[in-house]
């Protein structure tokens, strides 16, 4: 890859994932600053965002905000709420992210009109953010790409491709083609009927990466800025306390109780090699300074001693949640290393903790 990749911002989730006081956010600020990562905040209100911005890990890194998942872009009050966020963070945040909706397919004309209204609002803000609509409603990817083809003239509206969401959709489709009426996500590593099905499961998992690469190729031909949510997944994954099959590290495999292909663990949808392919495909399109990436990886259930951050928690009698937070932050840094390795020496990595 060429030097353009050095200008593609790399962010990660920045939020308090465990119970505790704001020392957890101070820990996140420390680790993000050490790594040179930009934050993508999750905020339910502009007031919550304002508080989170107080923990921003430096002013020289880009920042994004993931807005509440239930926002309805077809509702004027939903668009007004986005406007409140945009005004609250202008000059400090470059990107807002909002989930797409099933109405994108069922009421496409209204959806385009809503995006036009949002584009006009954002255009009127000095130093306002761009709005990225995330692939989340699991619609056919051509319908999602088609939305942004129709909205190609909207300067402040573009696409956020969540590679895990799209990959998992394709896995479920591929598995159901072999097992009509069956959802692969009903299985888990302890399922008594897994052994005779595991070959079909893994063949379906292998369908994820080609589908993601095809969607990226189609999106990049539009010449619009693009944002990516990067995370891995597997339909049998049980790592998430939220019951999700994705939002896991690219270094994760799924343990099983019997050997398959010489291992007692199943490879995820992408792994480090798939991540490298995703980044290469993305960087083959728009200039890298019109791309951005967020590591949208959730905690994996481990704990890590606080080390140089122990002083932040001197007032805590029990530092278990701080160690859980530290483990999660270390996973983000570990996956950052994978991204930087895939981007090559021009990516300008820092020494990470």
Structure description:
Helix content is 39%, strand content 16%. It has 353 residues and is of the alpha/beta class. Helix 7 (163-178) crosses helix 8 (198-205).
List keywords for this structure.
39% helix; 353 residues; TIM Barrel; disordered C terminus; single chain
Protein topology:
Layout: E1 10-14, H1 23-35, E2 38-42, H2 46-53, E3 64-66, H3 76-89, E4 95-99, H4 103-106, H5 108-123, E5 130-134, H6 141-150, E6 157-162, H7 163-178, H8 198-205, H9 208-220, E7 226-230, E8 232-233, E9 246-248, E10 254-260, E11 263-266, H10 271-282, E12 291-295, H11 320-343
Helix pairs in contact: 1-11, 2-3, 3-5, 7-8, 7-9, 9-10, 10-11
Write a compact overview of the structure shown.
With 353 residues, the protein is α/β, with parallel strands linked by helices. The chain is 39% helix and 16% strand.
CATH architecture: Alpha-Beta Barrel
Tally of structural domains: 1
User: How does the overall form come out from the CA principal axes?
Assistant: globular
How many H/I helical runs? 11
Gyration radius (Cα, Å) is: 20 Å
Give the CATH class. Alpha Beta
| Weakly predicted, low-confidence segments | 1-6, 346-353
Strand order of the largest sheet: 1-2-3-4-5-6-7-12
Number of strands: 12
What is the CATH third-level topology name?
A: TIM Barrel
Distance between the termini: 26 Å
Strand-and-helix sequence, N→C? EHEHEHEHHEHEHHHEEEEEHEH
Helix content: 25-40%
The fourth-level CATH homologous superfamily is Aldolase class I
Structural classification: alpha/beta
What percentage of amino acids are in beta strands?
Answer: 15-25%
Main beta-sheet strand count, sense and barrel state = 8 strands, parallel, barrel
